[in-house]
Automatic annotation (TrEMBL):
GO terms for molecular function: metal ion binding; sn-glycerol 3-phosphatase activity. Gene3D superfamilies: HAD superfamily/HAD-like (3.40.50.1000), Putative phosphatase, domain 2 (1.10.150.240). Pfam families: Hydrolase. The keyword Transmembrane does not apply. Its cofactor is Mg(2+). The keyword Magnesium applies. This is glycerol-1-phosphatase. It comes from Rubroshorea leprosula. One of its GO terms (biological process) is glycerol biosynthetic process. It catalyses: sn-glycerol 3-phosphate + H2O = glycerol + phosphate; sn-glycerol 1-phosphate + H2O = glycerol + phosphate.
Length: 290
């Protein structure tokens, strides 16, 4: 067999001569070639085909305690804040958007109010204090109609039936909390304890960890290892507050919230109905739970 570097044009009589006797001998006694099987194993990698990478397993800590946020997570109340703030801004020919809302969610009332009037450029016409007074009047009429978010009742009742301790940590003050929950009192009574935004121990609002640390410190047998606490949040600042407290976070954001705000969460779900307790070492839902 001729090598690849040897061209046919080079194959000439001048540089290639074989005695006829040798050729005849070759034709009369052709050599016998025997193919023997190779015992050498070829590495499997040589045969591998390109394929999608296998999903990476996510290591999650085993959870023993739960802390819930409230607005936008358990109760569908964020829409009320949006509605009222849109009405107020319309007077100034301005609009309310989700970029601004993301900065306000989870903050204490006065902090949120200052962000609102300054970011929208109406602080010369409306002070943060006056904004709160005006907003308060409208919100008090809306809060009593607050509805539960999908999956909230199912999850709370499941945790209670399995003896998993869970608490509420919200930036809402007591007067708002009572208005928002007046139709759902029986469900919120299942909480081990409740920490509100006007609690003396909560010095700073989210993203400071104060409200979650206060909630963690009131479970029986406290202190509880923060790595064994799972927080449920909908707001970017709330997620950061929980992470600052050293806790894991499941985020259930509003679909209008930009995806860039999801990064800090350990898990992002579209609804509490999608939560799988087993992934966090918690008792699984039983058939028929709704």
């Amino acid at each position: 067999m001729l090598g690849n570097s040897f061209s046919f044009k080079q194959f000439t009589a001048s540089n290639f001569s074989i005695r006829s006797a040798t050729i005849n001998l070759f034709l009369q006694n052709p050599p016998i070639f025997q193919l023997k099987p190779q015992n050498r194993k070829i590495p499997r990698a040589h045969f591998s085909m390109a394929s999608p990478a296998a999903p990476v397993s996510v290591h999650r800590p085993t959870i023993t305690h739960i802390i819930f946020d409230m607005d936008g997570l358990l109760l569908d109340t964020e829409k009320f804040y949006t509605e009222v703030q849109e009405i107020i801004l319309a007077r100034y020919n301005k609009s309310f958007n989700w970029s601004l809302k993301a900065k306000m969610m989870g903050k204490k009332a006065m902090e949120s109010a200052r962000i609102f009037v300054e970011e929208t450029g109406i602080s010369d016409s409306l002070s943060a204090e006056d904004f709160l007074v005006e907003r308060e009047e409208m919100l008090q009429k809306l809060f009593p109609s607050s509805e539960l978010m999908p999956g909230a009742s199912r999850l709370i009742k499941h945790l209670h039936s399995k003896g998993i301790p869970f608490a509420l940590a919200t930036g809402s003050h007591r007067r708002h909390f009572e208005l928002k929950t007046q139709r759902h009192g029986e469900l919120f009574k299942l909480m081990h304890h409740i920490v509100l935004g006007d609690d003396p121990e909560v010095k700073k609002g989210k993203p400071a960890p104060d409200v979650f640390l206060a909630a963690a410190g009131r479970f029986e047998g406290a202190p509880v290892d923060s790595h064994k606490i799972l927080v449920f949040e909908d707001a970017p600042l709330g997620v950061l507050a929980a992470k600052n407290a050293g806790m894991s976070v499941v985020m259930v954001p509003d679909p209008q919230l930009d995806n860039s705000h999801h990064d800090a969460a350990d898990q992002v779900l579209s609804s509490l109905l999608d939560f799988n307790p087993s992934e966090w070492g918690l008792p699984p839902f039983e058939d028929g739970e709704s």
